[in-house]
Amino acid sequence: MVKTKRKAVIRTTHTQGVSTPSVFLQNNDNDPPPTTYFDQKVSVPEEDTRFFSLRKLWAFTGPGFLMSIAYLDPGNIESDLQSGAKAGFKLLWLLLGATIIGLLLQRLAARLGVVTGMHLAEVCHRQYRFLLFLPYASTLILWLVKVPRILLWLMVELAIIGSDMQEVIGCAIAFNLLSAGRIRLWAGVLITILDTFVFLFLDKYGLRRLEAFFGLLITIMAITFGCEYVMVAPDQGQLLKGMFLPYCEGCGPVQLTQAVGVIGAVIMPHNIYLHSALVKSREVDRSNRKEVKEANKYFFIESAIALFVSFLVNVFVVAVFAQAFYQRTNMEVYTVCNQSGTPHLDLFPLDNNTLEVDIYKGGVVLGCFFGPAALYIWAVGILAAGQSSTMTGTYSGQFVMEGFLNLRWSRFARVLLTRSIAIVPTLLVAVFQDVRHLTGMNDFLNVLQSMQLPFALIPILTFTSLPSLMSEFANGWVFKIGGGVGILIVCAINMYFVVIYVTALNSAWLYALAAVLSIAYLTFVGYLVSSLKDRIFTVSLLKVPLRSSFNL
C-alpha cells in the first residue's frame, strides 16, 4: 500500500549568516522538504510474524531492484562479453566475488539510510559541517572545511556522468542495430535525449508503478540475454568450474587487465549513494528498534535476491561469449560472417589475431553465428539496460546534489544538466569517428568509475562504523578491518588500471599528467582515510554525540 508522505523530512541545512542569492533553489528553514522520489511512501503491513513474512518482504521490495540496475548497465555488459571472449569461463569466480562484495556494500548503504533517516550524501554534508561549530574558527578555516565535501561531490558527479555516457553509447548502438544501420549512431545519441524525458514522467503515476516498470526492464534483460544463453548452450561443467574454482590457468596481462575491469564495472560508486536514499521510501519508525531491525533484515533479503538476478544476467553474457568466441581469430569470424551475408565485414581484419569484441561487434558476431534473431534479441537487451540505467542515474544525481550542496532541482533540470554533459563528447565521437572509437570510450569510462570507488567506500565505511551515529547497528570489527583492507586493494587496483591504460597511450605529457593526478588522488584518499580515525577520536574525546549534532 502506498500513502502520501505526511512526516517532515529531516532538513539538510543549518546555514549561518546571510547567504548570497543564487540562481538555484536552495533549502532553508522556510522551504518545503525535497520531493525527489519521496512524494509517496510505502507503508509496511503490521504482522506478528516472528521470523519472516512474504507480505512484509513485498512491501520492502523495490529499492534493491532499482539499485541492481547499476550492475546491468551497458558498461557492465561490455565488461562481461570481453571477459568471456578474452578469458573464457576463467573469471566467473571474480564476477561472483565482486557481486558478493557489492551486496555487502549495499547492505551498509541500506542500513545507513534506515537507521539515520538520511542518505549518504546528506550524512557527508553534515559530517563535514560538524567541524564548522568549532569555537574561534576564522573565516578562512570555515571555508576550507567545506573543500573536502565539494571535492567529494565532484568525484561522485564524475562517476555519474561517466555512467551516463555509457548508457548513451549503449542506447545509440542498440538503435543502430535494431534499425539495421538506418539510424546512424549520432542520431541514436540524440534520441536518448528525448526518450529520457519521456521516461521521467513515469514517476507521476506512483512509486510502486515506477518500481514495477524497472522490474519490467530487468525482466526484459533476463529474457533476452537468457535466450542468447539457450541458443549458444555453454558447457555447464566449464561454467561451474570457472564460477567456483578461483583460478586463471594460462592467463597473461590481457586477462589480468580484464580481471581489474570486472571489479571496476560491477561496483559502481554512485550506486551506494543511490541505495542509501531509496530505502527512505518505506515507512519505518526509527524510534522503534524492532522496526529498524526488521527493515534492515528485509532490505538485505531483497538486495540479495535482486543482485542474484543481476548476477545471473551477467553470467548469461559471459558464458555466451566464452563458449562461442573465446580464442577465435578475426579470420574465422570473417569467414562465418561473410557466409551469413552481413554488411559489417569491415569490423573484422583479415588476420589471425584473437577476436576483440564490444557491445556493437558482439551483436554483429551473434547475428553471424546464430542468425539475425540473435542480433535483434541482443540489441533489445542492450536498449533495456541503457534505458533503465538512465533513470537510476538521474535519481543518483539528484540525491547527490541535494545531499552535498543543498541544491534542489527538478528532475527535468537535473537530467538536462547530466545528459548534456554526457552527450557532447559522445556526440562528437559519433559524428567524427566510427563505432570502434565510440565503444572504445567504455574502457576509459570504466577506468574513470573505478577511480571514484574510494569516494563511496570510505564514507560508507566511516559512517556505518560510528556507534554514536549507528548505535547498536554500527559495524563490528570484521567489517571495519575487512572494509579497510578492501579500500587498500581497490586503490592498488585503480593505480594498476591507470598505469596500464596510460601506458597504452604512448604519450609523455599524458604520463606526466597522470602522475600529477595520481598524487592528488592518493592525497585526497589519504585525507578521507585519516579523517575516519580523527573523527572517531574527536567525538569520543569531546563526548559530543553525533546523533544530536545531526538533529536526529
What can you see in these coordinates?
The protein has a two-stranded antiparallel ribbon. The N terminus and C terminus are likely disordered. Helix 9 runs parallel beside helix 13 and helix 14 crosses helix 15. The protein is 70% helix and 1% strand. The protein has 23 helices and 2 strands. It starts with a strand and ends with a helix. The chain is mainly α and 552 residues long.
SSE blueprint and pairings:
Layout: E1 2-4, E2 40-42, H1 54-60, H2 63-68, H3 74-87, H4 92-116, H5 120-129, H6 139-144, H7 147-178, H8 185-200, H9 207-232, H10 236-244, H11 253-266, H12 269-278, H13 289-325, H14 330-340, H15 359-370, H16 372-405, H17 411-432, H18 435-451, H19 454-464, H20 467-470, H21 477-503, H22 508-542, H23 546-549
Antiparallel strand pairs: 1-2
Helix pairs in contact: 3-11, 3-13, 4-10, 4-11, 4-12, 4-13, 4-19, 5-16, 7-8, 7-15, 7-16, 7-17, 7-18, 8-17, 9-13, 9-16, 11-18, 11-21, 12-16, 12-19, 14-15, 15-16, 16-17, 18-21, 19-21, 19-22, 21-22
